[in-house]
Every structure is written in structure tokens, then in C-alpha cells.
Amino acid sequence: MYGVNDIIRLNRERLAVIRSPYNPYTGEGSNSVKRILVRIKDCPIKDLYLPESFVETGFIQTLIKIGFNGFIQNNVGVGICDESRYDLWVNFCNERIKHDFEFYAFSTLKIPEKGTGRDIPFKLNRAQRKLVAALEKLRLAGKPIDIILCKARQWGGSTVTQLYMMWIQLVHRTNWNSVICGHVETAARNVSGMLQKAIDCMPTWATGGVQIKTSPYQGSPKTRSLSTTKSRYSIGSSERPEGLRSEDIAMAHLTEVGLWKPTKGKKPEDLVQAIFGSILSGAYTMKVLESTAKGVGNYFHRTWLDAVEGRNNFTPVFIAWFDIDIYSEYVDPKKYNEFIATMDEYEHWLFELGATLEAISWYRLKLKEVKDKWRMCSEFPSTASEAFQSTGRRIFPQKYVESIRKTTLPACFYGEFTANGIKGKQAFEKLRFEKMEPNKDLDNILWVWALPDYTEKYIDRYIVSVDVGGVSENADYSVIKVADRLPMLEVGGVPEIVAEWHGHIEHDLLIWKAAQIAKAYCDALLVVESNTLETEGTEGDNFEYVMDEIVEYYDNLYSRTSPEQIKQGVPVKYGFHTNTKTKPAIINHLKAAMRDFLYIERSKAATFEMDTYELKENGKEMGASEGCHDDILMCTAILIYVCYKWALPRIKREYKQSKRGRIIGEASV
Questions:
Q1: Residues 549 and 622 grouped into a single domain
Q2: What are the angstrom distances between the C-alpha of 471 and each of 179, 336, 414, 547, 623?
Q3: Is residue 307 domain-shared with residue 332, that is, in the same domain?
């Protein structure tokens, strides 16, 4: 947490950036693309901040060398006069709009001003420039412009997306068709009306001297053709998508996807795929999924998570409420100290995220109006995770999750531990790690952040936990997770996640795979969550059989049967049983560990499940929000609980395989 003086200093720096000059005509303050300060002799504007791609053209390089008048004399071949200078300036601007969307928007487009109804030049606000920066990065790289946009309200995200698409249709491409699809047709029609107004107000100097006209395409009122480039744009809705599926399109803007409702025989993903399936991905093609977040588990939420994890081709863009300039309330700088003294923990977190004191002041006032904190998070989110919050019943506070997410990393290796076999004695013979190319979903493969360390032999340095899921593709995942506890031997040291596996696999093969991983990680303690299978009838019996089978070859197994009970002849019950007593214990322990930085998480997927884990409406049960999973979370909770309840690692004096199975009981914990 920042000190008072640091907060005041950083706040002034942030305000200086927000209030810095922005002139899309000169390019000053424009940041969607890399710009270079250019001075051209005799140019109508002395200082121009032009896109790097424009500056590199021969046209600009020549102008820099010989100036406007020199260009007219040497390259145009006419005398220097107002008319020739005007013609060159128009030519300059026409060339510039190919490279500079912010200039194009301000100099050629007009949009209605909110609250007045007046048509004003389209001057991008700070949030819109953030989105355009993401669009331009993909365009300039020659990649498909595929964006998923999670946003707060009231900043013009749909407007800038659609006008950017029209820029491509009018300036960069011909016969380049687009689709606008909203959750209801009214929304799509509003966007279409905005486009028509922008076209009607467009100056002819930017359109080759002709007025652009639109007309119905083949008599369809939902598809209009642009007269200059023969490109078309069509409108539709998720409720009435007829006609969009067969369109020959290169760009699609799907708006408020979070509100698209599944109906009988029609899911949002089916319609999205039908529209996107018409697009042959390449340079200047666009696919934009855009919405305010509307809960978790729906298509938009799942696609966002996949984009963040790199499991699809969308670039995730999030716009926080404090990125929007209108959400600000003046604070007298003389009263900064007084204001800071009244800030609560959440407000300090907002400042850490990048909000100004003025923005936080607005948030306070708005919260009094909204009253319900979780609804405030949904309507005016500070992070994407907060945006997708479905209820106010989340178990793990947002700040805890964001804090632990800072230590997550992409895996260093992907692969599997393999041996001479997959079961029995051969499963541990010539055990070795084989690197593999991960599949798109990163399922059924081991994510490794640190391979086993054999330099010093310790007992129970590593602990491996297993959460048993289903076998079918639609079932819960099975998860295996490994923690290294060696840092706990040092003062302040905490366990660190070093490997993780999740996927669908037969239960007996899952347990054998976990045993192989435990063996590879220096004979780690293997903790299997058992109640899932114990409540599944024959599969429960099979589970006990598998554990009895494994103990013949791998003896470092966790059991909830105490050694005293075993001596009395009580059958051994392997595994960690999650029930109404142990589940709150491990969840509360994990929550405290997150709060107090008592372990290092590497898996970002685990933090996503923490975001969607909630107290159910009955006020008694805990679990994942509808449509979400908690498999990695539960595996993590068991793992961190045992890490702290188990004896610390100790040096192994004799590194010999025990002839008798070592039974480890819950009483030892």
C-alpha cells in the first residue's frame, strides 16, 4: 500500500497524463500507434505527430527533404499559389487517413453529442484510444483483427468499433462486407443509423470528390451497399439472425454478446460460429465480440477466459470505469491528505490499479446511489474479473485473487512423465520427463514450472494432490497439482506450485499417473481426494482397489485411518475426504493463505476458478457459479492445507525403497 506522499505524487502524475493536450488534427497526444514528430517546410501545420508507417513512405520523406513549395515545383509542375498549396494539402490529408484513424475520425466523421443532439467531430476519448491501439496493433502486424472487448458502460465502444470497420471499408478495401449483430435488432439498427449519419456528413475531399451514398442491396432493408467501394454492411440480432449466416463477409461486430440468450436448438456459440464461419481470416478481416459482462458461465465469459489464457485467437481488451474520463469528481488538492485518510482498503486497491483520487471520489458518490456493492462491480468494473462477478456472494475477495494472480506465469515446459508402462511395477521403471507440444486447450498434459530437484534428497519436500473428476468431455476435470515445500525451511518461505495437470481420463489411470508424478518428484506425499469416487458405487469400489494396488509399488500415500486404528485391524481408508467438516476448513485455510501471501500460485486457471467460487443461495453450501468449474480450486485447497499441516521436509539420510508400505494417517496431520 502506498504512503500518503506517494499517493499524492502518483495522482498528480496521472492527472498530468489525463489532462495532457490531445489534438488528433496535429497528432499531439495521440497514442494508438507509434508517432514521430515531423516538421515540413511551408506546411500549413508546423509540428505534426505522424504515424511511423506514414513517415516511412516516400511521399513524406520527399516532403521532409524539400518542403511543400519544393514538392509543388519539382513534383507537381505548377506554380506556387493558394490553389496548388490547397491541392497538395488535400492530397497529404488523403494519404494520411490511410495511416491515421484518429485523424480520419476527427476530420471526416461526425457523431451525435450526448445530451445535446448536435453533430460534432468524432474526437476519440481516452478509453476509445485504448481500444483503437489494440485494433491498430493487429492491423499493422498484418494479422486478423480479432478482439474480445469487456467494457464498462457509456464510453462509445460500439461506436468506435463500427466506425473503425467503416474506415477499412472506405479507405483500405473494396467489396469488403461487414455484419452488425446485436442482442436485439433495435441495438443493431441504432448502430446502422449512426453509420448512415456519419456517411451523410462526410466531406467530399476525403471521398474522391463524390458524395458517398448507400442503397439497399438486392432490395434488402437490412443490407446496404456503399457506392464508392461496393462494400456492404448488414444488420441482424441474436433473436432474428436470418440472412446473416450466408453473408459473404470479411468483418463482423457482435455487440452485447453477454446478453445473448440460449434457446431451444440455438445457442449463442452456434450463431457466432455461423457468422464467423463466413470470414476467411487474414489481414484486415475483423471479428469483434463486445459486451458488458453479464454474469459467469455464459458464452461471452467462457470466450473471455479462453482469450486471456491464449486458447483462442481473440485479443482480450478490458476497459475499466476509471479509464472513462466522465467518471471523475473534483477533489481540492489542498484536501488530498484529508481525503486519503478516509480511504478504505478497497479504495486503496483502486488507486493501486490506476484510479485517480478524483475517480475514487466519483466512485464513492456513485456507490451511495447504487448501494449494492456487487452491482456496482458489475456496472462499473475495475477489473475484468470484477466485471464478470455474478453475485455478491463470492468466497474469495477480489483483492486476494488479484494479488495472488500477480505470481502466475505461463508454464516453462509441457509434457508427461513416462516409464516402461502405465500401471504396476513398470510404471516406475525408467521414469523420465518427455517434453511435448501442447494442444490448443492445454488439457491432458502436464504444465511444469519447475522440474524435480534431485540435488539434495528430502522426505516429503514435494506434495502431490489429486482431485478426481469425470471421464466424459462434459464432466468435471480431474486435476493433479504439485507443490514444492523446500522454501518453508527458511524464515518466511512459502510453498510454491511447480506442476499441474488437468483433463479427462479413466479413474484408475488418473491415480497411476498421479503416482508417477509423485515418484518423479522425489517420492512426494500423494494426497488423493476420495469422496467423489466413494459415492459412486462401483467406481468407489474400483477406487479402493486401485489404491490397494498402487500401495504395493508406491507407499507414500495419504490415509485418513490413524496408525492406532490400523493396528486394531481397521481397514485403511486412503485419500482426503472432503465433507461438511473438512471443506470449510480447507477453503478458509486457502483464503487465509491468499490474504497473507502464504503460498505462490503459478496457475492462472486456478485464479479464474477463485473468481467464480461462491456461497450458494441457501447460505450453507459453497461451489462454482453456474457453468463454471472448481476442480483446480479444490485440488489447490487440499494441497495448501496439507502443505501446512504436514511435518516440514527433512533431509533423507538413507535413500532406499521401503519394503513395507508406509501408511500415513490423517491423525498425523
A1: yes
A2: 40, 58, 22, 18, 20
A3: no
Half-sphere exposure of 357 (CA within 13 A, CB side): 25
Which among 574, 550, 557 has a CA at the least distance from the CA of 428? 550
650 and 576 part of one domain: yes
Name the nearest CA neighbour of 63 among 35, 34, 91, 33. 91
**Over the stretch 508-522, which tens digit does the pLDDT of each residue have?**
899 999 999 999 999
Give the amino acid at 62: T
- Which residue intervals of 97-224 are DSSP H helices? 101-108, 126-140, 157-167, 185-200
Q: What is the pLDDT of residues 175-219, one digit of tens each?
A: 999 998 887 777 767 777 888 888 988 999 998 888 898 888 887
DSSP string, 554-586: ---EEBSS-HHHHHTTPPP-BSBPP-TTHHHHH
Same domain, yes or no: 310 and 355: no
Q: How far is CA 175 from the centre of its chain?
A: 33
Question: What's the one-letter identity of residue 14?
Answer: R
Decide: helix, strand or coil at residue 337. Answer: helix
**Domain end marker among 337, 357, 391:** 391
Number of domains in the chain: 4
Same domain, 374 and 468: no
Q: Are residues 364 and 279 in the same domain?
A: no
Cα distance between residue 295 and residue 628, in whole Å: 11
Please give the helix or strand (H or E) that residue 400 lies within, else none: helix 398-405
Determine, yes or no, domain membership for 397: no
Q: Classify residue 337 as left (phi > 0), alpha (psi -120 to 50) or beta.
A: alpha
Q: Is residue 628 part of a domain?
A: yes
pTM as predicted: 0.74
Asked if residue 338 and residue 297 are part of one domain, the reply reads: no
